[in-house]
Write a structure and sequence with these properties.
The complex is a heteropentamer, with 2 copies of chain A (267 residues), 2 copies of chain B (255 residues) and 1 copy of chain C (327 residues). Chain A has 8 helices and 10 strands. Chain A has 267 residues and is α/β, with parallel strands linked by helices. Chain A starts with 9 loop residues before the first strand and ends with a helix. Chain C is globular, with a radius of gyration of 19 Å. Classes of the chains: A alpha/beta (267), B mainly alpha (255), C alpha/beta (327). Bound molecules: adenosine-5'-triphosphate (ATP) (2 copies), bicarbonate ion and magnesium ion (2 copies).
């Protein structure tokens, strides 16, 4: 991959980045030679087989660990230690079990030093956004799986990091709620100009949300293709199904992702 | 309610068995009858001795406990978060911990005298280690993932400690505190046995010196009662500090 | 009697409530310290080393303890002095179980030689190695011609005499060596036999041994010469009272009321009568007595005390002043 | 390696400071010089005293520790699983725990004599409570969800205990064991102080009775060394019992 | 709901079953008046909004808690305590973190008392089935999200309970793997005649796998409709997309589930 000239727009750059975990049973190669450039304000979806290294890629951007080979640059500099510019909604919800929903959403606000009043208002707003208003006083163990995810999403949205890393955020939501959340997310991201990396296994979602979609090979994964999604930035997700470009793009992605199935179907 | 009843039944049964065993199975010289112990307690209560001595011991135990627990929690948090430092200091801490405090009595007296300070310091030392070791283990077993999540939100060490480490380790801290409570009393009493002219330990040793077995047992009963009181205080503190725990036990769970 | 303008507080530390401190108990319960304007606060520590530490730390002013301790301390750089005598008798005596006594064919009244000879192989509890009880026992055993390390089993059991009784009861030991009244209590409570009553001077060689003295830091003595003198004076008043046949019973009653009211009164009376002779008659602490102490100590210790220490470790300033005071 | 070096440097610094402080800042009568302590230790090593006495104390401490820990773990598991029973017994257990063992010396001797048994029982009693309380807390904090999952697989109580409860609570158990190790030594030594003519406690009290401070410190050094040894044994056991923990610390984590 | 005559075929019966959780903040109504009869050998999928009580329903069959109103019968008897006839793959994977993948899969085999050799063989077989052969010695914390789910699935399949309760088992899998797992599951279930209750948010999946699909209302949920899926028991999942009945059924389900979206789309 060639270096792009304007370093300001290249917010995240992977240069032959690899990650091999060292374990007592020997090395586990999670990612191999990742090359990817994400521009500021882009919405990238990541799709690929289970275990191909999608979460690993997000981890490297967040600075959970450095790449074992190659480089991961954020805003021109190698990521070293926890990357304070990103917000990360991990695959596991990682809620604080000893805090209620409201208190969980408030964590980043407390860290940011907001006053009690400001926190309360913001928490109420966010709880409403994710449909948890009635459950603000519940503990995570009293929530359903999808509700926990929504709580984690609200917590992420509570502060305003430059970049959002979302690891299968909507997998546990029903179709309707998922659509609503997708619309909310796109509108927030769009209005605030955030950069997003979004992992999903739902190929329709991967197309519907993305500016570009990175497709991983089977693990130890590398990025096989980056599919451009030439849909408008302002798109009506609800009507997308009827857009022929969308239908074609999902078909393409499907073929890319599941050649065996596609083959069978072609018979 | 039913629980208290069952406990009462057991207590009464134990006391009755003891009443009959004493004198019959074992000389009263060694284990005195509960009725006589009650007599002594009654006398000490009516002449104010009990309250006077118990107040002193309670004061020593409580202050020593607070001091030891506070330092134990602080050092446990510090070393739990500073792994390298903990590794360097580990053998020294364990060495100090292994010293039989009884054997150091002359030194304790030399440095801290024979007054309240000495007993408070002795109690604090004992409690410190118990609270420290549990707190440390608790802090070490806080989920690294959770800490990472918080750091990504821009949390400073202070936030990490107050928002993740303490809440995660608090069960450990309270386990350490509960383990320490009886030792706080034991520490104060042993301190009083070392040197004193007041406190339950003094009552105990004077009774022992006079071969007044009923007195010895009365002092022991008072010590146990104090420990129960202090223990209750810790339970209340635990319930306040861990609101989610209280509901966890009662909470219906789903999987 | 002379009185002081205001009461001077003196904190007094000692190990246990034993007859080894009889003179002091008498002075205290007879109110002689009060009479001399001294307010005594008493601290009991369970062992001599802790009582000594309390005095050295400054929390206690005066330590009542074995005279050998003073030499030992000074030798290791702790500046304390003996300034008054408390008890002149090695009060630690040996009590054994009746079964053991019968098995070995001895009674309280057997000749000393027989009693000594019977001790071979006995298991005797002492408070701690190096304690007065230990040394007394070793001395007795050596007198009998045995090796204290081999021929007799000396078991250290701390200062809780109830423990000795338990062990006797459980058949774990044959007897123990300690000061009155514990030997007498054992006689009564667990059917013990007082085999060798040193407190009553049964062992002629140790009769009159200067066992327990009053000690203080050099600094304290320099700052409080008058208090020291009054302390010594009160002791002298007690000595006089104890040895006055008219007042002996009165003193006994006072000591009983003040210290031993939990004890059987008759038993106390027996002990009292047995023991009053351990109370010195004078405040004298001559060099020869001190040399005896050192010799006795050196006989059973790895470390040896030098006799040259006597002059710096013993002061007669307080006793001299006390004598003047009382006149 | 570097770790050991840093520790050595600290150790040497402490010993040097101590060497100079003793005599200068504080009378040797109370804190003896390390060089003199070393002399005494050297003497005890060459005449075999050290090995003889240390072996006895080690034996008592080790057996007492094993016994107390085994019973503590067993009772902790039992009561941790039987909540009702635990609630009923709780005040009685805490009452016994609060008794100063020192004050019970006459009873210990009456029942267990003055030989090894008494010291082993005393040590076991002390260790029991520390191990029990931690094990119990650990068992109580095992995830109910996990137990439900296992029960659904048809697990009997035995399976639940071996497959979920013990592995979940084992960090707690080992924390209890580590807390007990020094107390095992302390218990044996205190037992020897109560009654004995052998063991490090006896060496200690002989030296103390002799006002032989160097001897006291030499005995303390030997006690600490034994504790370190026993502690090491527990660490090794922990590493074997918790293979996943060993790798957890070293394992790279991802979120 | 009327009682069915043949009690043998009615394996699971909900009769006006409700569940209200008692919490310190007051009661939380999770399910209301659930009526459902599941015949032996049926494959039922459950769909519905997040938080509507799907997991709660499975919990009641498993006997995690009894209904607070109404009845839940299993094989004619009220469920009391843990129901030993069911295997439950919960929404959270609940793997034993201190056991490797192989040891996790082996848990039910150990409980069943299989010999070491038998266990080893069966574990190897199952690890292969879920594609974790290379990871049998990894601990759960070393797996990707999808791998953990697969491990839980393998553990469930390790023993052979009469009824399988599956709570979003394939949500974390990529399309290809998901299809493979769906096929495996249907073939196992079919050949062994198992009864299955399967929660999913993927409406295509809900139709593709089911004999009947129960649709929940928004929480406190009850079952609004049970949709019959008149497809063959032996169906070729790979070619289902081309089956017009399937296409129609998914459309029906979509309309049922997300009326708002359907409306919008109809514009
Ligand atoms: N902490 C770790 N230690 C060892 N190996 C790890 C660790 N974390 C992840 N791996 C391995 O790295 C590989 C990639 O994992 P990753 O979580 O990135 O996959 P993924 O693409 O997110 O998969 P999924 O879609 O299932 O979540 C896997 O083989 C996994 O076993
Ligand atoms: N242990 C509990 N205590 C209190 N309330 C609970 C508990 N478990 C679940 N609930 C509540 O019950 C309701 C239904 O939860 P359930 O988990 O059954 O939903 P679900 O349909 O599985 O949702 P999802 O699709 O998000 O997993 C929710 O409102 C939830 O908050
Ligand atoms: O330290 C104890 O006395 O138990
Ligand atoms: Mg992942
Ligand atoms: Mg659910």
């Amino acid at each position: 991959m060639t270096r792009v000239d304007d370093p300001v727009t290249d917010l995240i750059v992977f240069e032959n980045a690899s990650k091999t975990f060292v374990t007592p049973n020997g090395p586990v190669e999670a990612s191999r030679d990742i090359n990817l450039t994400v521009e500021r304000g882009e919405f990238i979806t990541l799709v690929g087989p289970s275990g191909c290294g999608k979460s690993t890629l997000l981890n490297m951007i967040a600075g959970i660990f450095p790449p074992s080979g190659g480089k991961v640059l954020y805003d021109g500099n190698p990521v070293e230690g926890y990357n304070g510019h990103v917000g990360y909604m991990t695959q596991n919800d990682h809620l604080l079990t000893w805090r209620t929903v409201a208190a969980n959403i408030a964590v980043p606000l407390e860290i940011a030093g907001l006053s009690r009043g400001e926190r309360r208002d913001r928490v109420a707003e966010l709880a409403d956004l994710v449909g948890l208003t009635k459950f603000v006083d519940s503990y995570p163990s009293q929530l359903s799986g999808g509700m926990r995810k929504r709580c984690a999403l609200a917590r992420l949205l509570a502060y305003s990091p430059e970049t959002l890393l979302l690891d299968e955020p909507f997998a546990a939501l029903d179709a309707q709620l998922r659509l609503r959340m997708q619309m909310e997310l796109r509108s927030i991201v769009h209005s605030l100009g955030k950069t997003v990396l979004f992992v999903t296994h739902d190929l329709d979602e991967a197309v519907a949300l993305a500016d570009r979609c990175a497709i991983f090979t089977r693990g130890p994964g590398t990025i096989r293709t980056v599919l451009d999604i030439p849909l408008e930035r302002e798109r009506d997700l609800m009507r997308l199904r009827h857009d022929p470009r969308y239908v074609e793009l999902t078909a393409t992605l499907w073929d890319e992702m599941a050649p065996d199935i596609a083959e069978e179907e072609a018979v | 309610m039913k629980l208290i009843l069952i406990r009462l039944v057991i207590l009464v049964a134990v006391i009755l068995a003891w009443e009959f065993a004493s004198g019959a199975l074992i000389a009263e010289f060694f284990i005195s009858k509960p009725s006589k112990v009650a007599d002594v307690l009654g006398r000490w209560i009516s002449n104010g001795d009990l309250f006077y001595h118990a107040a002193i011991t309670a004061f020593e135990a409580f202050l020593g406990f607070l001091l030891g627990a506070a330092v134990g929690i602080a050092v446990g948090l510090l070393l739990g978060r500073a792994k390298r430092l903990a590794e360097v200091l580990d053998p020294f801490i364990m060495a100090f911990y292994s010293l039989p405090k009884l054997a150091l009595a002359p030194l304790f007296i030399l440095w801290f005298g024979i007054g309240l300070e000495m007993k408070i310091v002795l109690t604090a030392t004992i409690c410190f280690f118990l609270v420290f070791l549990n707190t440390y283990t608790g802090v070490r077993s806080v989920s690294r993932e959770m800490i990472a999540i918080l750091k990504l939100m821009g949390a400073k060490e202070g936030h990490v400690v107050t928002k993740v480490v303490i809440p995660s380790a608090i069960t450990w801290v309270f386990a350490g505190l509960r383990i320490s409570v009886p030792y706080a009393l034991i520490g104060a009493v042993v301190g009083e046995l070392m040197a004193s002219n007041r406190g339950l330990g003094f009552l105990l040793s004077s009774a022992a010196g006079d071969f007044n077995t009923a007195g010895v047992f009365a002092a022991l009963v008072a010590i146990v009662a104090l420990a129960a009181l202090l223990n209750y205080g810790v339970s209340v503190a635990a319930r306040i500090a861990m609101p989610w725990e209280r509901t966890t036990e009662k909470r219906e769970f789903s999987i | 009697a002379p009185t002081a303008a205001q009461d001077q507080k003196v904190v007094m530390s000692h190990s246990t409530k034993s007859f080894a401190f009889l003179t002091y108990f008498a002075a205290n319960t007879m109110g002689y310290f009060d009479d001399l304007g001294l307010e005594i606060e008493e601290v009991r520590t369970g062992s001599g080393s802790k009582a000594l530490a309390a005095m050295v730390s400054g929390d206690a002013d005066v330590y009542l303890g074995s005279t050998a301790t003073a030499f030992k301390s000074r030798e290791q750089g702790v500046p304390i002095k003996i300034f008054a005598p408390i008890v002149r008798q090695l009060t630690s005596s040996i009590v054994v179980t009746r079964d053991w006594a019968e098995e070995h064919g001895v009674t309280k009244d057997s000749p000393l030689e027989e009693k000594l000879a019977a001790l071979k192989g006995a298991r005797i509890a002492i408070s701690g190695p190096g304690s007065g009880a230990d040394q007394a026992a070793r001395y007795v055993i050596a007198e009998a011609g045995f090796d204290p390390d081999r021929d007799v089993e000396l078991v250290a059991m701390g200062n809780n005499a109830a423990t000795y009784m338990s062990a006797m009861q459980a058949g774990q030991i044959d007897g123990f060596s300690t000061s009155p009244p514990h030997i007498h209590i054992a006689e009564q409570e667990v059917d013990g036999v007082i085999l060798i009553n040193m407190a009553a001077g049964e062992l002629p060689a140790l009769d009159g041994y200067f066992y327990i003295g009053m000690m203080a830091r050099d600094g304290w003595l320099e700052d409080n010469p008058d208090t020291a003198a009054r302390l010594a004076a009160a002791l002298k008043m007690a000595m006089d009272a104890v040895h006055d046949p008219e007042r002996n019973a009165e003193v006994g009653q006072a000591v009983y009321d003040g210290y031993y009211s939990d004890m059987d009164r008759d038993l106390f009376q027996r002990v009292w009568e047995d023991q009053t002779m351990s109370v010195p008659t004078t405040l004298d602490m001559d060099d020869q007595t001190m040399r005896d102490v050192i010799a006795f100590y050196n006989r059973f210790s790895d470390q040896q005390i030098d006799e040259n220490l006597i002059s710096e470790t013993v002061t007669d300033e307080a006793t001299t002043a006390a004598t003047a005071l009382l006149e």
